[in-house]
């Protein structure tokens, strides 16, 4: 069984879903892959919109993140995907607040320089926006490429983190 909560953010309303293990989805309602990702989770079990301590804590942490008072999330995660996707997503979590990596850097971090496209594809399937920070991955030329929430949101998140970095 899964629990869900709608969370308001400065970038729009998000849907958070958690399993018994932890947060397994956090996506913008209007994101281009949200519906598909929601169906993947619905296939695993019933989703109930009920009050939940972890989802309430996530809402508090997101509010603090957007106010510039939080660099690291403490919410337990339940990464639902293939072994390769989980490996890629775990590398995303290691990218420090306020920093970026290229897809090439990330493919090297997962141990395969030639896996740039596979890494980019796995990033695109990340179901936990912001907390698993795929927005921190950019093109080798510094361009803002591929973000399911849209390039404007990606730019906002990167600017928010770069401005806040100086405060910590």
UniProtKB/TrEMBL annotation:
GO biological process: DNA alkylation repair; methylation
The keyword DNA damage is assigned to this record: yes
Highest taxon in the source lineage: Bacteria
Active site as annotated: 134
Main location: cytoplasm
Location relative to the cell: Cytoplasm
Keyword annotations: Cytoplasm, DNA damage, DNA repair, Methyltransferase, Transferase
One Pfam family in the UniProt entry: DNA_binding_1
Keyword Lipid biosynthesis: no
Reaction catalyzed: a 4-O-methyl-thymidine in DNA + L-cysteinyl-[protein] = a thymidine in DNA + S-methyl-L-cysteinyl-[protein]; a 6-O-methyl-2'-deoxyguanosine in DNA + L-cysteinyl-[protein] = S-methyl-L-cysteinyl-[protein] + a 2'-deoxyguanosine in DNA
InterPro entries: MethylDNA_cys_MeTrfase_AS (IPR001497), MethylDNA_cys_MeTrfase_DNA-bd (IPR014048), MethylDNA_cys_MeTrfase_DNAb (IPR036217), MethylG_MeTrfase_N (IPR008332), MGMT (IPR023546), MGMT_N_sf (IPR036631), WH-like_DNA-bd_sf (IPR036388)
Methylguanine DNA methyltransferase ribonuclease-like domain ranges (all copies): 6-79
PANTHER family: METHYLATED-DNA--PROTEIN-CYSTEINE METHYLTRANSFERASE
Other observations noted: This enzyme catalyzes only one turnover and therefore is not strictly catalytic. According to one definition, an enzyme is a biocatalyst that acts repeatedly and over many reaction cycles.
UniProt similarity note: Belongs to the MGMT family.
Protein's UniProt name: Methylated-DNA--protein-cysteine methyltransferase
Organism the protein comes from: Empedobacter falsenii
Upper taxonomic lineage: Bacteria, Pseudomonadati, Bacteroidota, Flavobacteriia, Flavobacteriales
